[in-house]
Amino acid sequence: MRRGTLTAIIAIAAVLAIGGGGIWLLGSSGNGGGPTAATSTVGSSTTAPLTPAEAAERADALAWEAKVADAFKPLVDDVATLATGAREYLAGTRPADTFRAEVDKDLADFRVSRDRAAALPAFTRAPAARDLYVSSAGLYIDTARAYAALVRLPTGAAQPVRVQLDALARRMRTLADRVYDRGRAMVTPLLHDVASPDIEIRLPEEVPDWVAEGVAPGPPLEPQAPPPAGEVQLRQDARPTEDRPRWAAAVQAAGIPAVASSDRAALARAEVAAAERLRKEPDPVGPDGREASARLRLDLLVYADGHRAEQLAAITGTPEVAGIASDLLSIADGLWPGGDLGPRPEGRT
């Protein structure tokens, strides 16, 4: 499936009737998941008879997901219109003052969702899910902050800078979706849903490829932006696996920067390159192996965009963009798993 053929609305499922069933396409170029998609497949699965223990798990998971949905409601109500507003503002069809007011409202709503997610009670059956939801909300906030900075750039700001600030926002928005999905992936097995034989759900690959998505950095962050290449990949039904020690060794040999550098572009390139190397590496064996690999690779992309934001902050001299960079790096630090994968990249503490 080539870039652009998936649904263009954030995380809204498109249903194509095929006989009595259908294909659910979740996502779009650059988007494919997040809190809106969490409710977009209603009717796409059935529940088999459950044991008492499974029924208890399902009841707990449904109750937890209802709390998560309530926490993210302010964000879900705004996030699709933010993307539309940004597109129209950049095209010159939405006045700057209109878009500025919309972004400021969205940013306030996103912060409400982040605070509600952080206040959620711990879910003992999937204790790491809450932190992933909070990290996702932080990435949505930084997306809105990027657009708030974009609409406030001086009139004389170079067009390539505007393009790159928009591309950064689009990448952060995709990362927010995917990190949210990693939290929900911890909860979904507890629902004990069985896929309906009449509906095929096509999910995007867990970790985006910025070149395929058409949002890889370009001038002035890089000499040239690569053209969109290949296809936006869909989630594989299965991935190869290997022993955890072998995977951990591959992570440590992937070229993740071990020390800090003033060359922010070089750090970002190295972190994206490491994520791409690990895309080809089999996942660690075990029930959480595939998700552990996806979370790590997403984390590397968050680090990389923290450094891209640092570049933009230096170019624009904008404190808000510098704040985004700092926040992205802080979110990435929180996502880093540590343990047998070693210390955080760049010697960060």
List keywords for this structure.
10 helices; two-stranded antiparallel sheet; 349 residues; 2 domains
Walk me through what this model shows.
- The protein is mainly alpha-helical.
- The protein folds into 2 domains: about 1-190 and about 200-205, no CATH class; about 235-349, no CATH class.
- Helices cover about 55% and strands about 5% of the residues.
- It contains 10 helices and 7 strands.
- The strands form 3 sheets. It has a 3-stranded mixed β-sheet with strand order 1-2-5, with no helix packed on it.
- Helix 2 (about 50-90) runs antiparallel to helix 3 (about 95-120), helix 3 (about 95-120) runs antiparallel to helix 4 and helix 9 (about 290-315) runs antiparallel to helix 10 (about 320-335).
- The longest helix is centred in the N-terminal third of the chain and has 40 residues, at about 50-90.
- It is globular, with a radius of gyration of 20 Å.
- The N and C termini lie far apart (about 40 Å).
- The model is unreliable at about 1-30 and about 40-45 (pLDDT under 50).
Q: Radius of gyration, rounded? A: 20 Å
Spatial order of the strands forming the largest sheet = 1-2-5
How many discrete structural domains? 2
Query: Poorly predicted ranges (pLDDT <50, ≥5 residues)?
Result: 1-30, 39-44
Tell the overall outline: globular
Percent helix, as a range, is 55-70%
**Count of extended strands:** 7
Give the N-terminus to C-terminus distance in angstroms: 41 Å
Name the assembly state.
single chain
Run of helices and strands: EEHEHHHHEEHEHHEHH
